[in-house]
User: Fold Nitrate ABC transporter substrate-binding protein from Mycolicibacterium sediminis.
Amino acid sequence: MRRTTRMMRSAVAVAAAAVMTVTAGCSAGLGGPASSRAARDGVIRFTFAPDPIWDYMNETGIVDQWQRDTGYEVESSATWDEFGLFAGGHADIISTASFEVPGLEEQTERETTIIGRYNSERSRILVRDDDPAVTLADMKGKRLGVFTTVSGTLVWSALLKQMHDVNLADDYQIVVADIQNLSNLLARGEIDACICYPDLSARDLREGTVRPLYDGKSSAEVFAELDAPGHDGPMGNVFVARRDWVDGHPGEVSAFLDLWTRGLAEWQQHRDEMVERYPQHFAVDTPEDIAFMKDYVAQHDWVVDDVRFDKKWADDESSIFDLMRETGVIGDDVSDPKFLPAEGVQK
Assistant:
């Protein structure tokens, strides 16, 4: 879900400050439309962006076996517009960033619950390799490329305000561009820095035309270092469900988490195979870039070890909202999302 909401005050300011749009972002659905059937017992309507672990579990028969073992059925659809399908009532579970859940509730007018975690917010701040900047504070007035005014931009907005007392909207020329083009625009000199995903910057990182600031740390790693020691978030993707559906379907919730527990284990065991098997999910195609990405993910894995979480983890994850409120990224009236810790799920 990548939507600007009224509660995201500085994000709206960033959007207003954008000086150009290079290409339109990805919005077309992949993998066909979601089921139009109404919710029913024993069926989990799951909408997810195209994903290597989910593809692997489907193609290797893990999902089919899970359905036979549990008696539950998954009706899945792959789309970048998870938000729209959820808003339209065609999905019981979707994924989104944890810090975007309040906006999801506001725009859909649906109460939600975070039931599981998947991966940490992995964006990095990149500059050209020959740029002498040590931090983004050294680049005031320069062109900063972002792929959205929400998502990782929200987290970096709060972190940069905390670390350097800078404001993205006021202190930089914001360039909104397609997520897959940002690092290349940076390498070509059309922007001076970017908030980029490493898996969409593999060639430029491998060739050494761009480099990361903050010792290559992601926004999640910087947040953990400054605000939540030992934490693995904030999450770039959590599993979110309608609260009324969660309350009425504890068996489906638990079985879904079991399925993704298996998926995360498969990732740990077959990570290199998945990169080779689904290079499109990592924006790589040449043998050199595939090898680079396999090595990079091994060193900077953003996928969590366990889909379930406890109350302490939920409290630490909620602290990103404290930081965003303190730095003015969101309003004081924005409530934290609701979490369902592992001990609250029947097994």
Notes: DSSP finds 14 helices and ten strands in the chain. The longest strand covers residues 112-120.
